[in-house]
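Pilot study result, target chain (184 residues):
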Amino acid sequence: MELGKKLRKLRKEKRMTIKNLSEKAGISQSMISKIERDQTSPTIATLWRIGQALDISLGDFLDNQVGGVYPVVRKEERKKLFFPGTGVSYELLSPHLKGNLEFLCVVIEPGETSEPEQISHEGEECGVVVKGKLKIRLGAEEYYLNEGDSIYFSSRTPHRYINVGDEVAISYWAITPPSFLGES
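Predicted structure:
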């Protein structure tokens, strides 16, 4: 399901109008309308604010493709969150968002960033770059990671990932507790 259709469905399930959601999330009505019509892609921070206003997690925006508690997640069955026009996508590698660990694949196109602004949340993160190059901004510090390099930090430290290479960057992230896609 496309992000806009999913947002509209979730908003209607909560019996909220675009105006109600706009006021609660602090986002303009026109922006929410454009997101729902897939005319624009929200930043993660915007989607996070919408999720909090709807009292749902970012994970609720994921396509519901994996069912049950089967421990294996097939590549073609991963829950995915795409941000059209941003060059960033997330895939849930763990079978669900109910456990103590969130495992993600983050794909970032050259020159793109996971988020224009640094974000922070509860928990800890550990990531490894499997393809390409990433610059990790942690507060005022910057760390450059090449293929095979890993990093560990408190998610409370404001952070973002930037692809500084000339090819797609693919990285895997373990987050505990599930706070990025799993926090309500």
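One observation from the pilot: Strands lie at 79-83, 88-92, 102-108, 124-131, 134-138, 141-145, 150-154, 159-163, 169-176. A full batch analysis is planned for the follow-on phase.
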